[in-house]
Design a protein that fits this description.
The complex is a heterodimer.
Chain A lengths: L3 E4 L2 E4 L5 E7 L5 E7 L5 E8 L2 E5 L6 E7 L2 E6 L8 E8 L8 E2 L3 E5 L1
Chain B lengths: L3 E3 L4 E4 L4 E7 L6 E7 L6 E6 L3 E5 L2 E6 L4 E6 L8 E8 L6 E2 L3 E6 L1
Parallel strand pairs in B: 2-11
Antiparallel strand pairs in B: 1-3, 3-8, 4-5, 4-9, 6-7, 7-8, 9-10, 9-11
The chains are: A mainly beta, B mainly beta.
């Protein structure tokens, strides 16, 4: 059983398009996160939601908008994609107050042409 | 200067060797220290976490934290080819944001 799942696994798109990445966790966790991993493997937090409420919002362009329909799902919508958005995006989840124990999804590899 | 520094490697060792992976950090407010393993094209997987200076052991893995030197280490005993992966250190202060190192790529040769 997959604990944290993401769709799609790969996403290839043109500059200027709008795309969404979906994340679901079946661990019963209340807190979910989005991370970006660049080509040098540097992993950086973008957003964190606790029970559908935004609690961490790093310096991310407002073209990126997270949406949490319920505590098991955290989707990422990206408008007007740019070349620099190409990266691997990871979703993660944890129990509330346990950011030290996060479970990561398999990642979505986004390529912007 | 990055908050967390980690040698990218690659580090190549023969099977059975003891591996030492290290990170240094600059933020004295970091209280929580984690090690993640990431296989190629997979998500990071938590290996160990610790809150205090000293050693914590789990099977073949030992995490060591020296807060006075702002230095953490992960030791892998009896390394196996299946340990070949990128190892990421991560740290957190009271903001509960994980700050990752850039990862060290480890290759264990059979």
């Amino acid at each position: 059983d997959t604990a944290v799942s993401q769709t799609p696994k790969y996403l290839v798109t043109q500059m200027g398009n709008d795309k969404s990445i979906k994340c679901e966790q079946n661990l019963g966790h209340d807190t979910m996160y989005w991370y970006k991993q660049d080509s040098k493997k540097f992993l950086k937090i973008m957003f964190s939601y606790n029970n559908k409420e935004l609690i961490i919002n790093e310096t991310v362009p407002n073209r990126f908008s997270p949406k949490s329909p319920d505590k098991a799902h955290l989707n990422l919508h990206i408008n007007s994609l740019e070349l620099g958005d190409s990266a691997v995006y990871f979703c993660a989840s944890s129990q509330v107050g346990r950011a030290d124990t996060q479970y990561f999804g398999p990642g979505t590899r986004l390529t912007v042409l | 200067q990055k908050e967390v520094e980690q040698d990218p490697g690659p580090l190549s060792v023969p099977e059975g060797a003891i591996v030492s992976l290290n990170c240094t950090y600059s933020n004295s407010a970091f209280q929580y220290f984690m090690w993640y393993r990431q296989y190629s094209r997979k998500g990071p997987e938590l290996l160990m976490y610790t809150y205090s200076s000293g050693n914590k052991e789990d099977g073949r893995f030992t995490a060591q934290v020296d807060k006075s030197s702002k230095y953490i280490s992960l030791f892998i005993r009896d390394s196996q080819p299946s340990d070949s992966a990128t190892y990421l250190c991560a740290m957190m202060d009271s903001s509960y944001k994980l700050i990752f190192g850039s990862g060290t790529r480890l290759l264990v040769r059979p």
